[in-house]
């Protein structure tokens, strides 16, 4: 019974509370693999404890390496390593096979108990929360881009933006390597969060940077401004819906601004500086959205 309790504590320490039946199945498979490796090691080196410990250490090193290197659900490797260690009964080889079989049953029982509790008592899935936070943040970024010229509500929008961003950061830190419906590792999610932060920073600058040139006048100063605006808006829209729909969407090529130099030459120095800064920030936003779309 103590083995089952220890298994539950180890699993709870490694994983989030919101769990899945599939992951519980992975734990059982990992326990069986560990037993199938641990028992032959005992049989091979029953008369030489030092060789057994050296062999076990080498095998454990391989499983720990796989656990650290594998980018998806690595629970199988960790449970296999735990089982390899746990089949060795208190440094005695006597009755090790019977003892190991009992421990397999107890570990299996502990896995089933933890899975049942996480599925039926705490069904909330941290991965779903993270996906929802990413979707909400994308939607707010789109809204800010559309309303970037409105000074009356810009402060409220920015505050809401960073609240949603903090929620995404918190849910990402609370999550483990399991990636829910999106096949991304923890490192990939960290890169996604970093990209979201960069996009939020650029949108903040766009919101607080106002020019005396209206948005309707910009196409006369930039020959391909309408394309820049439409591609940026399409990227924001796709980033909002991709978290519900995993279908791939078109990612535009890197954008090159085509300026109308004759028209720009008629602007005052201050207006020209504000205008160029605005266009540069929109182009930067376009680039950041492309990079985020490629990561996903």
Biggest sheet features: none
Find the count of extended strands (DSSP E, 2+ residues). 0
Low-confidence stretches: 177-181
- Helix and strand element order: HHHHHHHHHHHH
Number of helices: 12
Span between termini: 44 Å
Give the rounded overall mean pLDDT: 78
Structural class: mainly alpha
Binned strand content: under 5%
Radius of gyration, whole Å: 28 Å
Helix fraction? over 70%
Identify the overall geometry: elongated
Protein described:
The chain has 296 residues and is mostly helical. The protein is 72% helix and 0% strand. Helix 6 (126-146) runs parallel beside helix 8 (186-208), helix 8 (186-208) packs antiparallel against helix 12 and helix 10 (225-241) packs parallel to helix 12 (269-295).
List the defining traits of the structure above.
mainly alpha; 296 residues; elongated; 12 helices
Task: Please write out the topology.
Elements: H1 2-14, H2 21-44, H3 49-69, H4 75-86, H5 96-121, H6 126-146, H7 154-174, H8 186-208, H9 218-221, H10 225-241, H11 261-264, H12 269-295
Question: Summarize this, please?
Answer:
The protein has 296 residues and is mainly α.
């Amino acid at each position: 019974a103590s083995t089952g309790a220890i298994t539950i504590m180890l699993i709870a320490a490694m994983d989030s509370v919101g769990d899945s039946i599939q992951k519980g199945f992975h734990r059982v498979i990992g326990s069986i693999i560990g037993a199938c490796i641990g028992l032959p090691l005992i049989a091979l080196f029953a008369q030489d404890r030092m060789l057994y410990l050296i062999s076990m250490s080498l095998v454990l090193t391989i499983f720990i390496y796989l656990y650290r290197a594998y980018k998806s659900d690595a629970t199988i490797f960790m449970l296999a390593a735990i089982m390899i260690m746990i089949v060795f009964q208190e440094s005695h080889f006597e009755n090790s096979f019977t003892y190991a079989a009992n421990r397999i049953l107890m570990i299996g029982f502990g896995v089933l108990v933890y899975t049942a509790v996480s599925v039926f008592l705490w069904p909330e899935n941290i991965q779903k929360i993270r996906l929802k936070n990413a979707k909400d943040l994308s939607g707010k970024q789109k809204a800010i881009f559309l309303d970037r010229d409105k000074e009356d509500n810009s402060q409220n929008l920015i505050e809401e933006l960073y609240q949603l961003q903090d929620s995404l950061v918190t849910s990402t830190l609370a999550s483990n390597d399991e990636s829910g419906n999106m096949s991304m590792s923890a490192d990939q999610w960290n890169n996604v969060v970093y990209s979201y932060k960069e996009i939020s920073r650029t949108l903040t600058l766009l919101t607080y940077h106002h020019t005396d040139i209206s948005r309707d006048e910009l196409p006369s100063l930039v020959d391909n401004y309408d394309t820049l605006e439409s591609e940026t808006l399409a990227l924001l829209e796709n980033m909002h819906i991709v978290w519900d729909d995993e279908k791939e969407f078109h990612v535009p090529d890197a954008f090159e601004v085509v300026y109308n130099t004759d028209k720009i030459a008629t602007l005052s120095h201050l207006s020209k500086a504000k205008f160029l800064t605005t266009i540069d920030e929109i182009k930067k936003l376009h680039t950041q959205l492309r990079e985020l779309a490629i990561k996903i």
